[in-house]
Write a structure and sequence with these properties.
Pfam families: 4HBT_2. InterPro entries: 4-hydroxybenzoyl-CoA_TE, HotDog_dom_sf. This protein is α+β, with helices and mostly antiparallel strands. The protein has a single domain (1-141), classed as Thiol Ester Dehydrase, Chain A (Roll). It has helices spanning 2-5, 31-47, 49-53, 131-140, and strands at 10-15, 60-71, 80-90, 94-102, 108-120. The chain has a five-stranded antiparallel β-sheet with strand order 1-3-4-5-2.
Length: 146
């Protein structure tokens, strides 16, 4: 875990809202996927990708190809979390992203991974990254560490 953790450079902070907990008083498991989404979108904004992908006339859009999560500890109402996101691997039209949720006590509460594919809005087929964007994606996770 410590070795894997060293490669993270970007995080998004959030606070657990009351509506995200279940009858047992901890975060409902489905909300972790929302936390990963919020953090992934924050990373995409940092990279400037949401300007292009979010434009009404954009040709390419990102889609989630797969997403998984391992729950390591309970997360309770009003806890503050840092969700670290890193680009683990860059393919021709996809990226493999890793996630690490850390609570205020610096304990890992979840890990995850998923693949995002850039596709054509017109035909739904994968669209290759430009050489410039591919270089930017590869270098993004080398800026800082947890």
């Amino acid at each position: 875990m410590d070795e894997w953790k060293k490669d993270f450079s970007f995080f998004h902070e959030l606070q657990v809202r009351f509506g995200e907990i279940d009858g047992f008083g901890h975060v409902n498991n489905t909300n972790i996927f929302t936390y990963m989404e919020e953090s992934r979108i924050a990373m995409f904004k940092e990279l400037g990708l949401m300007n292009d992908w979010g434009a009404p006339d954009s040709i390419e859009i990102p889609v989630v190809a797969d997403l998984q999560c391992d729950y390591l500890a309970q997360i309770m109402y009003d806890e503050r979390l840092r969700v670290y996101v890193k680009i683990n691997e860059v393919g021709s039209s996809s990226i493999d992203i890793h996630y690490l949720g850390i609570n205020e006590k610096q304990n890992p509460v979840f890990t995850g991974r998923g693949a995002i594919v850039q596709i054509s809005r017109k035909n739904g087929r994968p669209v290759k990254w430009s050489d410039e964007l591919k270089k930017q994606l590869k270098s993004f996770s080398k800026e800082a560490h947890v």
